[in-house]
Amino acid sequence: MPAAKQVIALLAGHLDGDNEQVRTVALQIAAAEARQGHVKTAATMKKLLDRPRDPPATQTRGATPAAATLLAKPRGDLEDLVTVAQPKARLSAMTLTSGVRERLDRMVRQQSARGRLREHALRPGSKLLLVGPPGSGKTLTASALAGELNLPLFTIRLDAVITRFLGESATKLRAVFDQIAQMRGVYLFDEFDAIGGKRSAGNDVGEVRRILNSFLQFLEEPNATDSVIVAATNHPELLDRALIRRFDEIIEYGLPDVDGVRDIIKRRLAGRASRSLNWEKIGGAAHGLSQGEVSRAVEEALREAILADKKTVDQAALVTALDARRAMREAVADLFNE
């Protein structure tokens, strides 16, 4: 007999018009029936799923049914815990190392063929931990994954999840994971160390331990919808080791090298870069800056060029903007160190 969560996911897929979700969950139920010895039931379900289907009359060929999932926005308690968006970002527009791009492409490929994997009693990779300095592209990666898979991006508001009342945080987290099981999407837990910190930390309190233990438990539950869970942190050293082992992929983001800086600048300027740029010197000026900081510096140089009626952005303008961005960061760092 199918689990209640599978039935809920099946109904959610039907109501949202997501035929792929319905098929995936139904195949999962059929596989479970076969394992229990109900071979005829599993064969009947498989035969029905393999029948050719006509496209719905109200849907144009080539239209994307997954877009309908945005109609079911979080309601009730979830309304204060989760925000939803439909990103248009793509991995191809990001500046990534070849290794990081390959691992992200692998997750997209597995998620896109999740029905085929389920037929072989396998699940696609769905739990991703991103670590790296601020501005290195972790949050943008979650948006790009949602864009690649044409799924809504649900961002968990950890400040609303974590409360000081005994047991309330675990209850709110339970509601979030029920949503993950019922509606397929990309779910982002940003600044993840807020709930994933080491249980042995000296400043730990009972409620924090309960939140982490609840998260560990919920993360192990079957994910009938194949939702993608993305956790991002700037401080991986704070995470509990038991938590790290639960993720399918752990991807580390670093600061851009000279090639990365060149790629960011070319993408941002979109043909307005001067042909006489010395990338080694520009890379030196950008050394130690994150992707986000380089991008903002380039945008500042571009704004000044437009206001000065210049058709291109030259090297001097870029170096000046990069130096200003570094000085700004150092000034802020000094304030925190006082």
What does this structure look like?
Helix 12 packs across helix 13 (279-285) and helix 14 (291-307) crosses helix 15. The chain is built from 15 helices and 6 strands. The protein has a 6-stranded mixed sheet with strand order 1-3-4-5-2-6, with helices on one face. It has helices spanning 4-16, 19-35, 39-49, 98-112, 114-119, 138-149, 158-161, 168-182, 193-196, 206-219, 241-244, 258-269, 279-285, 291-307, 315-337, and strands at 82-85, 127-131, 153-156, 186-189, 228-233, 249-252. The protein is an alpha/beta fold. Helix content is 51%, strand content 8%.
Strand order of the largest sheet: 1-3-4-5-2-6
The largest β sheet comes out as: 6 strands, mixed
* Arithmetic mean pLDDT: 81
Q: Taking Cα atoms only, what radius of gyration do you get, to the nearest Å? A: 23 Å
CATH class of the largest domain: Alpha Beta
* First-residue to last-residue Cα separation: 63 Å
Mind telling me which CATH architecture of the largest domain this is?
A: 3-Layer(aba) Sandwich
Strand content: 5-15%
SS content category: alpha/beta
User: What is the number of independent domains?
Assistant: 3
Helix percentage: 40-55%
What's the CATH topology name of the largest domain? Rossmann fold
Describe the global form: globular
Low-confidence stretches: 54-71
